[in-house]
Amino acid sequence: MFYKNIFLHQELHRGMFEKVKQIMSSNKDLLSNSYLFGTNASYIEELYENYIKNPSSVKGEWRNFFDKIQNSSNNEELTNNKDIIHSSIIDHFIQISKNRKKYIFKNTHESEINDNSEIFNLINAYRLLGHHNANLDPLKIKIKDNLPELDPLNYNLTKDDLNKPFNSKNTYFQKSKLSLKEAIELLKKTYCSSIGLEYMHISNASARNWIQEKMESTLASKEFNKNEKINILNQLTISEGLEKFLHTTYVGQKRFSLEGGESFIVSMDEAVNSAAKLGVEEIVIGMAHRGRLNLLVNIMGKRPRDLFDEFEGKYAQNCTDGDVKYHNGFSSDVTTRSGNTIHLSLAFNPSHLEIVNPVVEGSVRVRQEKREKESFNKVLPILVHGDSAFAGQGVVMETLNLSQTRGYTTGGTLHIIINNQIGFTTSNIKDTRSTEYCTGIAKSFDAPIFHVNGDDPEAVAFVTQLALEYRMIFNHDIVIDIICFRKLGHNEQDTPSLTQPIMYKHIAQHPGTRKLYADKLVAEKILENNDVDNFVKNYRDILNDGSKTIVPIISSTDSQYSVNWSSYLNIAWTNDANTAVPYEKLKQLGHKITTVPESFKLHTLVAKLIKDRRRMIDGEINLDYGMGEHLAFASLLDDGYPVRITGQDSGRGTFTHRHAVLHNQDNSDTYIPLQNLSEYQAKFKVVDSVLSEEAVLGFEYGYSCSAPNILTIWEAQFGDFANGAQVVIDQFISSGEAKWGRQSGLTMMLPHGYEGQGPEHSSARIERFLQLCADNNMQVVQPTTAAQIFHLLRRQMVRLIRKPLVIFTPKSLLRNKDASSILSDFTDKNFQPIIGEIDNSIQNSSVKKIIFCSGKVYYDLLHYRTEKNLKNVAIIRIEQIYPITVKDLNLEINKYFNAVDIVWVQDEPKNQGAWSFINKYIYDAMLNGQKLRYSGRIASSSPAVGYMSKHQEQQKSLIAKAFSNDIEIFLSK
Predict the structure, then answer these.
(1) Taking each helix axis from N to C terminus, what angle separates 529-545 and 513-523, rounded to the nearest 10 degrees?
(2) pLDDT confidence of residue 101
(3) Which residues, 6+ apart, have CB-to-CB distance to 756 below 8 Å?
(4) 153 and 275 co-located in one domain
(5) Which of 89, 455, 506, 622 could form a disulfide with 820 if both were Cys (CB 3.0 to 4.6 A apart)?
(6) Nearest Cα to 703, choosing from 714, 693, 717, 692?
(7) 318 and 387: one domain?
(8) Is the peptide bond before 381 cis (omega within 30 degrees of 0)?
(9) Are 130 and 150 in contact (CB under 8 A)?
(10) Residue 715, Cβ neighbours under 10 Å: how many?
């Protein structure tokens, strides 16, 4: 409010505060001494809010300062909205920074402290910095910082002031007056106990005050009743019990033990039960390896026997290849303590740690969209991280950056960090990150952070409850950092004392969190020692039985919100699909997408495009690629298939071919024709994404896995931008079905084409995708006409097959008239995996050479053949490179029984593109006596040259070479 009132409400120059920061940033003395800089600006903010309510409540220099600013509201310059000189304000900040003692208010009363300012400095210091002195390390290795800001002497408060009362209305300690001594004790309990809180960086004052009240009014603790304490001990017991059972039963096998971090299960148990109580119906969880097996068995209800079978290699999944046990996902319905049933889903996760984060968020988003009312609070994402991974993996930041954007927000994620203080095998914590805590990056996104000692499971349960409440109220991300330790190595085959001898001496002496808490309950006379021993024995018996640990309801019911893949399972591959649309329907839709409100002023270029599209649908001119794409979307929406397309420039299209979102040139209004087809159409969503590939593609993959009936598209700005998301492609898109039985109909649009734009904007790396192709796992297609993209997009939904579709979309062909299509191609045909020779003047018997190609190079070949008037060469386009239609390939070759030479032509270098993949298919289809040859660029370490002249020279050469007889034979038959 202070900065809003002073710098915005009073309409001071918007760059003013930045100016102050720049001045202070350039002065090391100010940075080191200014308590008012940075996140502590909230102190000034609160003073100003008090001043607005009651000016007399603020004393001394600050009162005078605020009076001056308030009086300036009548300034003529200010009223006229002009810039004014702010040197007085800047000087005030600087003087406070340089001369702290000058601005410390002196006590004027012996018996009572009437001026809160000096004490509020101290209180605010605890709020801001108390976490540095919190009891957070269960191993007690870390030396606490001795912060002068937490010393009353730093504020000219002496021992004589300790017993003096002061007005405590600026706190939530439930007393109107406190002595300084009482206040310090309460502040230490609240901010320096087992919980270290970072929240003063939050820009939302309501959120900040909410946390402050919750913490200070309870002294950062909760009085759990007997049953609640017994439940906490039970969670610790089952967590430790499973790990010890596995350790002794399956010696040496990797499981990424949770020992040392058992309080994570306490947190998850509380999260599930608190969420259900608050009305959450579904939780989607993403986590890597550590503690995963424990979560599966003890929270989600996976049968121990099923887990043991996986250890023994007996478990057969409904997928081709399967995966290791600590990568597998699971779903169940669990009855919580409140009596509510909640659906839990654990996402499948590869070894790339945090890459599951955006996948979970995408899955959550589509589940929320199925519920139109209060959807954010019905489906909750929980992401579980390792400490080093949270700090070190870029996808964490990318996913956090999605969290409040319109197309990707899920209303806040609960982040839980299992912080074993060691990361992987790093021997020095300074090598794992550049910030004090692993959670440093979360502060950039206004997320509150609860650091909590894992040896205080009650504190863990308390902050989990608090975090859930916060998330449900403010729909914002929040972080719980459970600081614990790792009893064993990174995996059970490691010897961690090789690199961390001191730490593991402390760990060897640690009795375990369960033992510590059990002893506490015995001391409190809540349990007897025999009770504790029986807890351990009973759980061991449950594991020996192997049937169940909790009573889940394994999902079998068809909820209206459940993800139903049954219609798409075990469907044999086929290219057959009736994707044609009757002309009358197509015309109706075409008119809808070319109709704009009368008052909506289009840019002249867009107005021409809309006018041309109307002429296209009326049959006056051929339909271009953008129109083919739009008609595909419109017809699918009309058929009831929702469409979601995202990417960094998806509304307009990188090459300005789409214009799905129209912009009024008179104001900032937008109009989306595809959202205005009819009252009954399906939903169309187009999102200009943040500048991210990895997180956004991961999000869309997760979205597609939970939305088989939605055409989900991610479009790269340039095809080679997919390089930044290679982990998603390798670990999920290409292999998810083989590893986990997870199907996806995600469509990727990757602009591809050699037009002389250099090595970074030519190739979408066709060869990389083809290398990943096997078992009909995905489709790799390079369409060359408007009708082909129309049918291809429709086929992706009309067929019951759900496979990832990788489309190498054109650039120069978007406006190439040769690539346009007539209306009958949309109304009478379907998608053609292979397009044979289209020139009727080419006689089959006269053909001596067959040229196979894919993509833009076809038109270069066609123009050359026409220019040279060659009638003995047939040119065939392979539109669907994988799965290649062998039957059609054989048919095309058999047509030309007199052909001797078969040439594959491509724009890409020889070691790239489709050549290495496709030559074996062509060879197998060849007739006896035929020779296979290659025409294209020579092998290169770079995708393309950077010089236009060299590009043109290469292009001219490879086209001419394709028609010559001077080509090296690759294989003969």
Answers:
(1) 140
(2) 43
(3) 948, 951, 952
(4) no
(5) 622
(6) 714
(7) yes
(8) no
(9) yes
(10) 25
Residue 277: which CATH number?
3.40.50.970
The confidence score (pLDDT) of residue 28 equals 44
Residue 879: what pLDDT? 98
Beta bridge partners of 902: 850, 932
- Which of residues 212, 235, 262 is at a domain's end? 212
Rounded Cα–Cα distance for residues 447 and 199 (Å): 8
| 578 domain-assigned | no
Question: If we measure between CA atoms, which residue out of 456, 396, 386 comes closest to residue 420?
Answer: 386
Taking the C-alpha atoms of residue 167 and residue 195, their distance in angstroms, rounded to an integer, is 26
Map residue 23 onto helix, strand or coil: helix
- Characterize the bridge pairing of strands 414-419 and 341-346: unpaired
At residue 964 the predicted structure's pLDDT band, cuts being 50, 70 and 90, is: very high
Same domain, 303 and 430: yes
How confident is the model over 155-167, as pLDDT tens digits? Answer: 888 888 889 888 8
C-alpha distances in Å from residue 532, one per residue of 234, 460, 542, 612, 753: 9, 21, 16, 79, 69
Residues 397 and 537 in one domain: yes
β-strand 643-647 against 711-715: which pairing, if any?
parallel
Region for residue 647 given its phi and psi (left: phi exceeds 0; alpha: psi -120 to 50; beta: otherwise)? left
Same domain, 899 and 801: no
Write down the pLDDT at residue 666. Answer: 93
User: Quick one: 843 and 822 in the same domain?
Assistant: no
Residue, of 45 and 659, whose pLDDT is higher? 659
Asked if residue 598 is part of any domain, the answer here is no
Looking at the domain assignment, is residue 580 inside a domain? Answer: no
Name the more confident of 70 and 841: 841
pLDDT at residue 21 is higher than 60: no
Q: Which of 789, 805, 827 is the last residue of a domain?
A: 827
CB 262 within 8 A of CB 324: no
CATH of the domain at 858: 3.40.50.11610
Highest mean predicted confidence (pLDDT) among 4-13, 105-114, 884-893: 884-893
Tens-digit pLDDT profile for residues 754-795: 999 999 899 999 999 999 999 999 999 999 999 999 999 999
Domain count, the chain: 4
The answer to whether residue 563 is domain-embedded is no
Task: Print the domain residue range for 71.
Answer: 2-212
For the beta carbon of residue 606, count every other beta carbon within 10 angstroms.
16
Q: Are 616 and 624 in contact (CB under 8 A)?
A: yes
Report the pLDDT value the prediction gives residue 43, as an integer from 0 to 100.
57
One domain for residues 306 and 361: yes
CATH of the domain at 795: 3.40.50.12470
Are residues 684 and 715 both part of a single domain?
yes
pLDDT (average), residues 678-706: 96
